[in-house]
Amino acid sequence: MFLDHLKEQLERHISGLKKVRLIRANKREGLVRARLLGATKATGEVLTFLDCHCECHEGWLEPLMERIREKETAVVCPVIDVIDWNTFQYLGNSGEPQIGGLDWRLVFTWHVVPEREQKRRRSAIDVISSPTMAGGLFSIWQCGGTLEVHPCSHVGHVFPKQAPYSRSKALANSVRAAEVWMDEYKELYYHRNPHARLEPYGDVTERIELRNKLQCKPFKWFLENVYPELHVPEDTPGYFGMLRNKGMANFCFDYNPPNENDVTGQKIILYPCHGMGQNQFFEYSSFNEIRYNTRQPEGCIAIDQGSDQLTMFLCRENGQNVPENQKFIFREGKHRVTKRGPALSNPMFTLVTGIVGRWRAVCVTALQRPNSNAATIDIVVCIAAASLSVKDGTLLHQQTQKCVQAEKNPNMGNAAPVLRPCSNSDLQKWFFQERN
Ligand SMILES: [Mn+2]
């Protein structure tokens, strides 16, 4: 009853149109399988895909066709205008079109056309190179194609508030994309989504064979040549994951951005560590930033002037300097470490006394074997000591010279990290952990 218009009514309507065929699936297939079904039945030279909740603007098709004729390896998208979810009003998009990107959760993102691309274009009606297309597709680039947005082609689209069907395969699909296309960079995805490592993603052998057969380029090439705006995290071991407190055991840095389109402005809180990455994923960079980089653009923790609370700001652009209020020193103190070991079990103890590397070793009780050459000595035990750099775990905010401290109730609300004068308290000791 509710969907009657998709039955006979639809058939009747379409039977009056030239060139249009209605192909029905036997069951609800979802977006991508429906597209593939259509593609297998299509007979034309060019495939065009539209969602069912689209409305094409006048003259939308010609610019796309023209570009494909000019360059047959180009995959061209229209500018996607918004159709209001409540009223179905067509809201044009007057500004510069946006292009597609992705973040390290492999979630599709929109962003403005970068300067280098504006410079490359010869006119306002020239196509715009886009790292990904809506949905997040990117591998076309690696295999010799291009993804482009044509500013002269406009199609309206209702952005659904949520998918109308279960998307239980979404995680497995992301994992497949990471496994087939991202080479070693897939680790950056897994660090931010530890549960994805456990997801059964089926067999990707055929997809890898296809990639090899088509001689597709490495993901590194894509990052450097197509998407240099995407910041590639360093993810140095020991400096990413959950940021846990030592005094308030089991409490971690946690951040909830205000919405999907804006990462900034909220305060960092402390919440029981869940080990799922996402909101509790942070990375300490070699530039002394604490980055919240599960999303694009990336957030960096900062201190608002005069405040003792930690707030999310945008990180600098690649190549720019780190703002002073975003610099935190994860302090490393010199600690004296001693080791005691049986002689000769470790090459560092082969000296009777002396310095090996940064170890100063003293070996005691040298015995002479009864029946051996007089020159041979066995060393029984060695004690070695060294001053090693070990993380002491305090996070010093450089500008204010205060330390980040965990507090239960700093502001009548959630537990949160706040700036306090540095002390030796365990509440000021922090450490990164990849997962629980
Ligand atoms: Mn859609």
Automatic annotation (TrEMBL):
Name listed for the protein in its UniProt record: Polypeptide N-acetylgalactosaminyltransferase
Record has Disulfide bond as a keyword: yes
Record keywords: Disulfide bond, Glycosyltransferase, Golgi apparatus, Lectin, Manganese, Transferase
First-tier enzyme category under EC: transferase
Entry's localization field: Golgi apparatus membrane
Record's keyword annotation contains Glycosyltransferase: yes
InterPro entries: Glyco_trans_2-like, Nucleotide-diphossugar_trans, Ricin_B-like_lectins, Ricin_B_lectin
Family indicated by similarity: Belongs to the glycosyltransferase 2 family. GalNAc-T subfamily.
Membrane topology listed for this record: Single-pass type II membrane protein
EC number of this enzyme: 2.4.1.-
Necessary cofactors: Mn(2+)
Residue ranges of domain Ricin B lectin in the record: 239-433
Pathway info: Protein modification; protein glycosylation
Main location: Golgi
